UniProtKB/TrEMBL annotation:
Gene3D superfamilies: Vaccinia Virus protein VP39 (3.40.50.150). The lineage of its organism: Eukaryota, Fungi, Dikarya, Ascomycota, Pezizomycotina. It comes from the Eukaryota. GO terms for biological process: methylation. Residues 45-136 form the Methyltransferase domain. InterPro entries: Methyltransf_25 (IPR041698), SAM-dependent_MTases_sf (IPR029063). This is S-adenosyl-L-methionine-dependent methyltransferase. It comes from Teratosphaeria nubilosa. It holds the Pfam family Methyltransf_25. The keyword Methyltransferase applies. Keywords: Methyltransferase, Transferase.
């Protein structure tokens, strides 16, 4: 994803998404902390895709003595985090997660953490491989080789999102080949797939939690299903439809599918009120 794409995603839209993603992000931090204490004497965190800084603030609050390098591809997001003045322990850097070399000279990181970011990266598999390389380098410089070095990632579970949008596209009569995925096709949206990505990169003791972010009835999720969320994954999915039919007709189709549970192409295969947003929380260590 380009920095321009990120900057076009307003912080207001990001903040609304944050209300859904914050609880599972905290869960991911707990999993990472269990594998290797985030408040240990040598703990140091590299955060990928810090966005507006909610995970950065959570980490700084819970582990005030742990250095954090918070990074994002978007200069605009980093400016917002900078204005928060979170902690002297927090430093910021503009960074594309597919190339972590610029961050390596800053510290030997014990943890690399990221939430709701990886599936929108240009090469998500490279992100995991880069994380392994950086953590392995850090471990090589550690006097205690029994210490665990941890990658923790929060990733959207795509199934219901794609099911819903496929049905909307079917309502509009758009051919299936023009229905884009919610996120990078290189990133699996299921537990088996992400486990394999971690293990192929070299991580062990991989743990995964599947969490439902919402029960489908909150204001935030209602907006999500009604095309009111403007995050990069959804913008990408909607682009072809909006260009061909216009936003008003697209919103009307989404509302119809949501309200009626119509079996469009691909089919919802469940009642609209049973649709859910979910995330996978994945941690692994070396």
């Amino acid at each position: 994803m380009s920095s321009n794409a990120e900057d076009s995603w307003g912080s207001h839209d990001y903040d609304r998404t944050e209300q859904l993603t914050k609880p599972p992000a905290i869960s991911m931090v707990e999993l990472a902390h269990q594998l290797s204490p985030l408040d240990g004497n040598s703990a140091s965190v590299l955060e990928l895709g810090c966005g507006t800084g909610f995970l950065t603030m959570e980490l700084a609050h819970r582990f005030p003595d742990t250095p954090i390098l918070a990074t994002d591809i978007s200069e605009g997001m980093l400016e917002k985090v900078k204005r928060l003045k979170i902690s002297p322990q927090v430093n910021l850097m503009q960074l594309d997660a597919v190339n972590l070399k610029p961050a390596e000279g800053k510290a030997h990181f014990t943890h690399i953490l990221s939430t709701a970011t990886i599936q929108f990266c240009s090469d998500p598999l490279k992100v995991v491989q880069e994380a392994y390389r950086v953590l392995a380098t850090s471990k090589a410089h550690c006097s205690d080789q029994s210490q665990e070095f941890v990658l923790g990632i929060g990733s959207w579970n795509n199934a219901d999102v794609e099911r819903f949008y496929h049905a909307v596209y079917g309502e509009l009569g758009i051919p299936e080949k023009f229905t884009p995925p919610f996120s990078s096709s290189a990133w699996p949206g299921d537990e088996t797939g992400v486990r394999q990505v971690f293990e192929n990169a070299g991580f062990r003791h991989v743990k995964i939690e599947q969490l439902v972010l919402d029960d489908g009835r909150s204001e935030q999720e209602s907006e999500f299903w009604h095309w009111e969320f403007d995050n990069p994954g959804l913008v990408s999915m909607r682009q072809a439809a909006v260009e061909q039919f216009g936003i008003d007709r697209c919103k009307a189709a989404a509302a119809k599918v949501y309200a009626s549970g119509r079996e469009g192409r691909g089919g919802l295969r469940k009642r609209p009120e049973d649709l859910s947003l979910g995330q996978l929380q994945i941690v692994g260590c070396i």
